[in-house]
Design goal:
The structure holds two protein chains of two kinds. By secondary structure, chain A is of the alpha/beta class. Chain A is built from 19 helices and 18 strands. The chains are: A alpha/beta, B alpha+beta.
Amino acid sequence: MGINKHLSSIPGVQQAAVLMGSEANKAVFSELGVQDAQLQSAQANDLVVAVVAKSQQLADEAIGKLDEFLLGGVQPSKTQNPHSFEEGLQQRPDSNIAVISIPGEYAAREAHKALDAGLNVFLFSDHVTVEEELNLKQTAAEKKLLVMGPGCGTSIINGIGLGFANVVRKGSVGVIAGAGTGLQEFTCQVHNAGLGISQAVGTGGRDLSDHIGGLTTLSALDALEADPDTKIIAIISKPAGKLTLAKLVERFKRCSKPVVGCFLGSKPDEVGGLAKYDHVATIDEAVNSVVALSQGKKHSKQKLAPVDSRQIAQEHAQWNPEQRYLRGLFAGGTFCYQSQQILRSEGIEVYSNAPLDPKRKLPDSNRGHKHSLVDMGEDEFTTGRPHPMIDGTLRKQRILSESADPEVAILMIDIILGFNASMDPAGELVEAIQVARQNASKRGGRLTVVASVCGTDGDPQDIGQQMDQLRQAGVLVFRSNAQAASFCAALLKGKE
Amino acid sequence: MMAPTFFDKLIHSPLVVINLGLKMFADSLEEQKVEVVQVDWIPPAGGDKEVIDLLDQLL
C-alpha cells in the first residue's frame, strides 16, 4: 500500500493502482482504462503496478523508481513465513482466531479451513458472496464458532484490537456492530466517557439482512449474555431486515441484560415497549444510554449536546452571500451515513454516493452536488488504491476540488485514529485545508471546516497533537461525528 | 446452563492468531503482545479458481 502512496505523490502521476494479478483485478484494471498483453498473462500471485501519468516519460520515471519503493525500508526476513493456512496451523496448532485479508474471491475457502480446524474467523476481505457468507456463518453456528465479517474492519476480543481498532480500557460494556467505524466510534466514546469494553464484535455489514438473518449477531448476543464481565450490551448497525428485526426483538425480550440498540437510518419508534431495551437514534445517544445504565438509571433521555449559537453566528458573518452548501468527505462509512441521518432529521436534503435515501444518489461520485456527503471508503475510490483511513492523498485532492466551488460554505471531514490507520491523518489534510480556506478568503468569504476525531488517548497517534494541528489550521473540532453533523445542520438551518 | 459460546473458549486462553494476508494486521497484533503466525498467502493453482475447485473435489 505504501507503493501506491509513493507513486501517487510523484508530480505528473495522475493515478496509480497496485493490485495482485487475479482475474477480478484484471477487470478492475480494464475499468481504469489500463490494458496490456503483459497484464493479461499476469497470474494471481503476480503484483501488477499501473501508472497513469501526463506523459510516457513521467510514467517511465515513476516505474523506474519502483524498486526503490518496493525495497525501501524492508528488512529481509530471517525465517521464511508459511504460504498456506495449513502450514500456518502446523506452526501453531493452538491458534484460536484466523485473521483473513486475502482477495475476496479466495477468502471463503480459507475461512472454511479455519472453521474446520476449530478457529474463529475475523474476515476482513470484501467481495465474498452472500451465499458464501451464509454458508460460513451456518457452519460457524454449528461449531459454536464465530465469523466476524466479511468486510469486518474492527473487533476487540479480550482487550485485543483486531483490524482497525482503537486502544480502549477494559470494562463492562459489550458491543456488536455491523460497521467498522461504527464500532470504533462507539468504543472510543465509551472509553472517553470513563467506561470500558468487555468485548466488541464486528459482524460485517450484511449480517442483519434477511439473507443472513443475523447469525453472527445472535451468536455474539448469546456469548455476551453468558459473559460474566459484560453487564450492558449495545448493538450498532444499519437497519435490520424485517424478518431479522422480528427475530432480534424476540431475543431482546429473553435477554437477561439490558440492551441498547442503535439502528442508524431506522425510524425512531421501530422497536419500542420492551422492558430492558432502549432504542436510540445515534451512536452518541447509545453511549449516553450505556453511561446511564452503568449508573443504575433506566436509560438516558439526553440527546446530542446543544450547539454553540455564538459560534454559528461568527461563521455566518464571514460567509459570502453565495456560500450555501455543505460538502462532507469521509473515510468512515458510518460517519457518512450517520451524518446524512442527522441532517435529514433537520429537514436538510443531502446527496451521497452511499445515500440513506436512494433518490438522493449523487449523480457523479467525483463531484459534489448541492449538499453532499461522500463516503471515500467505498469500492469506487479504494479499488487498487489505499483506503482513506490509511492514506489521505485522494481526500486531500478532493478537499481542494470541492472548495474551489464558490457556493461551498462548509467542509466536513472525519479523522480516524487507531491501529493500522495513518499515523498522521490530520497532518495529511491540513495543508489542503489551509489552501482551501485561503482560496475562500480571496473570494471574500470563509470556508467553515468541521472535523470529528474518532480516537482515544491510548491510540498510537497522539490524539491531542492531531486535534491541535486541526485547530491551528482553523478547523472546528468535535469529539464525535454526531456532534459535528448537528453543528453543520445548525449552520445550514440558521442560514435558511 | 447455557451451551458454551465462542467466548468461553477464547476467554480462558490467550489469543493465538493465524494472519492470512496483510502483514500490518500481524504487526499491530504483535504490538499488543499477541502471538501471531504470519502467512504470506499464495493462491494455489496460480489462482485459477476453476482448477482450485477441481482440486478441492479431488482431494
